[in-house]
Specification:
alpha+beta; about 270 residues; globular
């Protein structure tokens, strides 16, 4: 009898230990699944808006007169994206018409330049005009002081375009593109209409563009993707900073295909 009991007891103990081992593995797997779900959920919550939803963020049109940019320029210091010579393709169904653009990011808090007339956030634009009117008796705010503009503060605090969660805002710097690529593309004036993007104050995200039509463009490879309004003019003139064999583009919006390359200008 003692021998039988010992055998039975030993068998029961082995089964129990095996059961505990399986339960431990099961609990560990469940924890890993739970952690993965939490990570996925956090990414969904913080994910950028779909590109065609920009009408809720781009609430004020930009000026396309270069002289107005000079008059309303201000200086910031902070992380930013540069799209001066960007190459873009349209985002189908976007409202307002928006293009996906390959740009470069500068996360080292470089000096960069913005402009009131290029600001797409209507509330922010009104705030800047009001503040500048009080300080300088003109809504153009010709201040050389760095980070004095509400635009700079919103850009550096990450509060511009709440809900879209951009990593960067597109502004301008006269030297960074050259230092990054080793060259400055030749500008061209389009006198008979066409299509161009204006990336001033556009929302940007880390990483290269996802469009297959922008693959292989940019040397070094674009490391930021910006969503810039594009404009189509049947007549009139504008400047394109990145001249190619066909820099001016279509004069009719209906002629812009999904693979039509659009260049940044004003």
């Amino acid at each position: 009898q003692p021998y039988t009991w010992n055998r039975f007891g030993s068998f029961k103990e082995d089964v129990f230990l095996s059961f505990c081992s399986r339960m431990s593995r099961f609990i560990m797997v469940q924890r890993l699944v739970f952690i993965a779900l939490l990570i996925a959920l956090s990414r969904c919550i913080a994910a950028p808006v779909k590109p065609k939803d920009w009408k809720d963020y781009y609430t004020r049109p930009q000026s396309n007169n270069p002289k107005n940019y000079v008059k309303s320029a201000f200086t910031c210091r902070g992380e930013y994206a540069l799209c001066a010579y960007a190459t873009c393709v349209k985002v189908s169904g976007s409202d307002p018409p928006v293009a996906e653009c390959g740009c470069y990011s500068y996360p080292t808090k470089t000096v960069n330049i913005g402009a009131i007339v290029g600001t797409l956030d209507g509330n922010l634009k009104d705030e800047m005009k009001s503040e500048c009117k009080k300080k300088f008796d003109t809504p153009m705010c010709p201040s050389p002081e760095i980070n004095a503009s509400p635009f700079c503060k919103a850009m550096n605090k990450g509060t511009m375009y709440k809900g879209a969660n951009p990593d960067y805002i597109s502004t301008w710097n006269p030297v960074d593109w050259d230092e990054t690529t080793g060259t400055i593309p030749a500008p061209v004036t389009c006198d008979n209409g066409g299509t161009f993007t204006n990336c001033f104050s556009a929302a940007c995200y880390k990483g290269s563009p996802s469009s297959p039509y922008l693959k292989g463009i940019g040397s070094p490879r674009f490391n930021a993707t910006c969503y810039c309004p594009y404009y189509t003019l049947a007549t009139g003139s504008f400047n394109v900073w990145n001249a190619t064999s066909d820099p001016c583009g279509p004069t009719k919006a209906s002629n812009i295909e999904k693979d039509t390359l659009i260049y940044n200008g004003v």
